[in-house]
Every structure is written in C-alpha cells, then in structure tokens.
Batch of 2 targets.
Target 1
Amino acid sequence: MDVRALVFDVFGTIVDWRSGVAREAGRLLGAGIDAEAFADAWRRRYVPSMDRVRRGELPWTSLDDLHRASLHELLTEFGLPGTPDTVRAELVLAWHRLDPWPDSVAGLTRLAQRYVIASLSNGNVALLVDMAKHGGLPWDTVLSAELFGHYKPDPEVYDGAARLLDMPPEQIMMVAAHVHDLAAARARGLRTAYIHRPGEKGPAAPPPETDPDADVSVASLTELADHLGA
Amino acid sequence: MDVRALVFDVFGTIVDWRSGVAREAGRLLGAGIDAEAFADAWRRRYVPSMDRVRRGELPWTSLDDLHRASLHELLTEFGLPGTPDTVRAELVLAWHRLDPWPDSVAGLTRLAQRYVIASLSNGNVALLVDMAKHGGLPWDTVLSAELFGHYKPDPEVYDGAARLLDMPPEQIMMVAAHVHDLAAARARGLRTAYIHRPGEKGPAAPPPETDPDADVSVASLTELADHLGA
C-alpha cells in the first residue's frame, strides 16, 4: 500500500457523541429528562434528515441546521416544547463540543507525523473546527460534506476529498467505525481501515458490525498508528 | 472588536516565496541561472494568470496548474526549453515547500490559543496542506480559493470564508502583507490587519505600500499576538 493521506469519519470514530450530547442535554434541560435516551433519539434522526438532502427533497442544508430542525421535533416529543431559543442554540452546539475517545488524540498525533490527516465528516466546517479546538484534534485540514454539497455516503464526498488532496484515491485511506461509510469509500477506490468502537451506542447496544473487506481492522487509533508504522 | 477568527494570506505574509522558489530553482536548474531573477519572473506571472480565470477567459484552474503553465513559458524565456518533465513537476512543488518567515510559527501558535486560525490563500488545498506540513503551520483548517472557485480579490472568497466559519464577517480578521487583499476583505465586512514584510520581494525592491485603513498594523505575527492579547 502506498497510502499518503488518512481521512476520518468523526462522529463515533473520533469522538464519543452519545456521552457528549447526553452531558449537554442534562446540563441544559435539567435532571428531569433521560439524557442518554435524548441523545439516542436525536441521533436516530441523523441519517433520515441527511437522506432528505441526499434524495433532493431539501436543498443543501448544513448539519447544524439539520440538528436544529430535528431538535425542535425532539423537544416536543420529550414534553419540552417551551424550551427557549437560547437553550436550543446551546444544545445544537453540543455537537461542536464532543470529547475524543481516549486514544484519538494520541493516535492522530502519531499518524500526522507520517501522513496527511483530515476529517471527512458530514459535520459542517464550523462544527468540525470547533470540535478540533475543543478536543485538540491535530487535523492538517478539515474536509467536510459541506465543501461538496453532498452527504456521505454519496460518492461526491470521497471523490471530492481525492480532488482537494490532489491524490489518486488508492493513496487515501478512509478510517471509520461504520461499514456503510467504508464500503462507499472502497467503491470510489479508497483504501479502508475499520475501527471497532463498541461503546458508540452505549452499553446496552449490540456490538457494531465489523468489516471483513477493510484493508486494516483495529480497536484504536494508536493501534492504527502501530499498524501503519507511524 | 469582537474578533473570533483570523484568516491569513500566505504567499509573502506567512512564507517567504522568493527565497524558497530561488533555492529550488538553483537546486533543480543548476548554477547557470539567476535563481532570484527566475523566482521574480515566475511570480510576475502569478496575478496575470489568475486574472485570466477571474475574467472568465479560463475555467477554474488550480494554482498548481497555473504555476505549471507559466513555468513552461518561463523555461523557454530562460533558454531552458529542454527541461525534463520530472524537473518541471519538482519545480511546481517548490511552491509547496516554502519556508515560513522566522516569526510565523511562533505567532500563529500563540494566536491559535485564542482564535480560530485558517489560511485564506489563492494556493490550492493540496499546496497549502503540504506547506503547512513542511513549515509546521498550525492551521485549524485550510481555506483556499479552490473551495470557492474564485481567486482573491473576488468577493466570493471572503464571503465564502465567513460562510464556512459560520461567523458574521466582522468577527473575522484578514491578515495580509498586501493592501489590495485587505481592501477587498474590508469591502466584504471583515476586519483587517496589515503586516509589514519588507523582505518579500528581495533587498532591491522598494518598501511595500502600507495600509492606513487597517484596524491593526504590525511588523510580525508575534507582534500581532501581542496586540490581540494572545
């Protein structure tokens, strides 16, 4: 393999969205709600909301704006329709303040010594920049679905990353905890690394599906650095 | 001023293009050429080549591709029409390997503690990523004309930076050594910082024009960090 750049899924792969969103929901909405259930319910609206954009039912809409729209529905569902706008705005920013998994910063820092490293996330640029500041993620640059006007797993996202990095796709490795993302990247010629994140959906969730077709399978980003000699 | 992000011109403002290009021209073309004159002549083609894109005479063309086209003309002009393609390709990469001015990394590192910092350059994304790796520039993200399909000083570049950073333009400060860049940024509502780089065009060049309309005028990025309390 002649890999020169690594691009990373972010939600679930680099950061722990469930704990972070639950923490902010608990802080901002009070002890009366089940914060983990709130985080799970919000996240369940993630793929359907992007799919409306992917199918052309909505024009391009940033992830912050999709999060905002699904939050409004969710607050009604949780019996909190009177939540003030200022609190809603803060809740949307919960997704900007997610903590990295314990191995993420150490692994990325090592990988950056040898490879170009970039996010390749459905999060918008401002979200990803805030998250990197918050968690100390040492991206060489932020790549986002927003730059391409398409959400993963649309092929335009993977093709766009190769175009902006000015590398043939086989010199780029997509790193993700989700098989559908890796399969879509492979279909566009990228190398793939599967990272096992059994904690992503909480302790009660079944273990995530693994990816037998990935070039590399690891349990952490430090293990990925070991594997890639970084 | 309620500035939250700083965006930076790169060629001349952050890195010393003249010494870097001359060094690579000397290394790759041999002692027979006047390497500084070669660098100056290549740079003189920079604005006219982008202007062809800005006027719509050329479709969007990356800076690497503009550099490649002007290099071919230049080698003929310098009596080196037989320069092999491999050497031409290496010469184009000279622009990816420019060294920062002595204060750049220290100043950016301090500014990044308090502000979002990003390039806002006519260089393409891959060029800016390589340059950041080469020189240790700690960008939070790379913003490039390439993302907007427009070259500075087109307004789309400054507007696009504000859109991707999701900030009102008055919360963004453009930092540059060139008055035309700052004036264009101001016209789109950004704050501006002028940085005096008398060495940019070499010891024989007249001192650069300063900018009486800038919010801040400094002689280095460390002085900018002092001024902005970072």
Target 2
Amino acid sequence: MAELRIIALPGLPEIVEGDDLPSLMVEAARRADLEIAERDIVVIAQKIVSKAEGRTIRLEGVEPSPFARRWAEEHGKDPAMVDVVLNESRRIVRMERGIIISETHHGFVCANAGVDASNVAEGTVVLLPIDPTASARRIREALEAAFGVGLAVIVSDTFGRPWREGLVNVALGVSGIAPLIDYRGRLDSHGRALRVTILAVADELASAAELVMRKNTGVPVAIVRGFDYEAREATVREMIRPPDQDLFR
Amino acid sequence: MAELRIIALPGLPEIVEGDDLPSLMVEAARRADLEIAERDIVVIAQKIVSKAEGRTIRLEGVEPSPFARRWAEEHGKDPAMVDVVLNESRRIVRMERGIIISETHHGFVCANAGVDASNVAEGTVVLLPIDPTASARRIREALEAAFGVGLAVIVSDTFGRPWREGLVNVALGVSGIAPLIDYRGRLDSHGRALRVTILAVADELASAAELVMRKNTGVPVAIVRGFDYEAREATVREMIRPPDQDLFR
C-alpha cells in the first residue's frame, strides 16, 4: 500500500546571515532523533535560505526612486519597500490598490517579487535567494555528505495565483529531483492517451510539506519520505511555462 | 514532532454509473486492512465521483452546434467534444491552438471545462460533478456512518495554471473542513503581522494526496492523516477569488 510520510523538522534556531544552514539542520535532526533516509525529500522555506545567504535589506539604507516614492505615497505604502520590490522585478504584471504583482528576475510571478517583511527584524525585509536552484544544490550536497545518503532538496515559498482564493506553497528551486513527471505517450486502463500529461510534482511536494510547516509554528523544514521520484538535476526554466505556450496567462 | 501520513486506498473496482461509491470505498478499506481514523481527510479524484453520478456522455449522441463544428474542424478536434466543453462552460477564457480554457458553471477556470476522455470507455467523456461540494458531503456522511468517526472529504482534480509548468491537484468540493486557513491578525515571532494571510489548505491537501494517486496507477482515493483542521461545512464560493479582488487574473 503506497504511503507517504511528511515529517516536520523541529528545533531550528532563528537563522541569521552567515549561518551554516545544512549544519544547523543536521543538528536539529539529531536532537529530534530524526533519521534521514535514502531518497528523502527535504523541503525548506525560502525565508531561512535567504536569511542564511544574507538576502536581507535594511529599509533605512534604501534611497527610493522618485517613481517608487510617488506610487508608495499615493497608496500609503513604504517607499523603501516599493523600491526594493521594483529592484527585485524584471517586469510589473499588475500594480493596483497598493499591491504589486511582478515577475522576478528568476521568472516567477508573485506578489511583491517575493519580498517579505514578516518573520524578520523590524525595519528589515527578506528577498528571494538569487539562485534558488543553486541554493538547493548546495544544501543537498552538504546534507548528503553529513547523512551519507542520496537526497532531494526543494526550496519553497507560498504564492498566490489567479482565480482561486488563498496561497499555496510551490517550488522555487530543486536539486536531485525532476520537478515534473511527464506522462505523455502513456495510456490509460482503456488504452487511450492520458489527458493529464505533465504533473508538477515539485509543487505538489512543496504544498504537502507546507501542511506540517504551518506559517505560525516556526517550522521551516519538512521531510517527505516514500515518494518515488526521478533523481536528477533540474533548472528553474523547467518549472516556468514559456509565455508563448501559456494559454492560461 | 508534527507528522502527516498520506495513504493510498488500493483495490477500488472500475466505477460505473449508479455505483455506491462510499460502500465500495468501505469495502476496499476493509480488504486493505486500512482503519479509518477520527479526523482523517479522504481525498477522491473527481473522475470516479462523476462516473458514479452518471456524469458521462457518449459523444455519438451529441449534435454539435455550427460554432462547435466549425472551430473543431479548423483545429482538427472532435466537434462533439468541443460542443460538450462549450456546454460545460459559463464563459470562454481562451480558445487557441485547439485548446479551450474556460470558466465552468461552478466558477473553476481550467482546460476543456474539466471534460476528460481518458480512463473512460472509447467514445465517452467524463464531465465534472454538477455540485462537487454536495458530492463531497454525501460521501462524507456515508463514510462517517460506516466507520463511526468524523471525517473530511475533498473531491479533487488536476488543473493547469498560468506561469508555471505542469498541473497540480486542487480541491473542487470539500465537506467537513474549512478550505482556507486565515492567519490575518496573527503576529510573527517578531511581533509583526504575517505577510502570508490566507492559505489554501484544501488545495495543498489535494496536491499532497495526488502524490500517492499518481495518474497511471489507478488509485483514485487517498487518506491524509494527522492534519489539524477546522471541521465545518464550506462552499465552493470560498475557494474562488472574486474577479474584482483578483489582481493575478
């Protein structure tokens, strides 16, 4: 009988710039008597990855552009925060009612370019990692060396989406796992081609992990165990739909 | 240590119109020695719900409209299938390159209005349930009576979305569980308001369940155990973002 386990990793300290995140995760797992097994998938909230990498900005050091200042004042927002969001954006998708939805330099479309003022010291904001795929790979290699097993790592964040209420956790960067499963060419039980052809399993794994992270509990890491995946390196480009093939856009 | 289990329910037979789906699920659980526990969440692929409810159509009985016929011929599609998709739609979002993305009568935006020709007899297509929330409630009440425990039920389907590659499983109808968790007003560890305010846990639970269903294995039901949820009735309207509040649209 197929069964997955999703296990929260408790006991991580508050992460700050320069922290050796994989070592802290190893220590937390050992304190919790949590054995890491071959082919476990480690899902990590981007917030702590960004903090360890120093991807934080003190807003008082930001000199907002005239454009950022004007728009912020018009909508009762912090001009420095708006300036940071614009800098983290490749293009603006929507800028209305004080909300900015933009495409990040990685190609992700999300609110505020992923810039976040919660769970960080007053006056400071956290940016997305510069290269979440590279972050995932570094963490995977360090964890594999420490535990002596082959693993996959997913760096995740919660994003909104059109049409449906609420945010869901998705994958920003993956290492050691193919982010999609392609069923094209496979047949159903009646010998007909499957309608559902490509499933975004990295996003589904991120969503599954979020269920034990729960935003307010301060558990930014979860282990998914028992999922049969294709172990290989992947790029962020695989996860982003090219505009010319995106009829949902 | 917080831990979730996601358990596939094996051994369901091919479902046909008029089948008593809850009874078949009870029998399958007993054969698999799978105890259903208080507050388990039962996630069910809409395909078998629709089949049991007779939401299938034989395409040879369909008289396509001139519009459906013309568009289908232009794009090498089956005119009857196109006609069925149009009938299942409240409005068309995009109609290009042989692909129809539309809003269903429930308010879901998806490809082909959720009409599916895979895993069903040749010449037949499966429609979404007329009222997936009512379907979920009927199944929940029957399962609760059979097992003597309080449960939640989610009827799910895999949908595409803008910007990101691949489909993910989402909730179409829920019963016995609040589909969203609202963190508004709660503070983070630094006493600042949380950025992430509303999480779509029903969608995350559907995605988690999909990881053990896997499209080609023929397992359309999974149990999520260990998730702490708000037990109450819910409507599909809670899960759909009103257009005037949807900046992602």
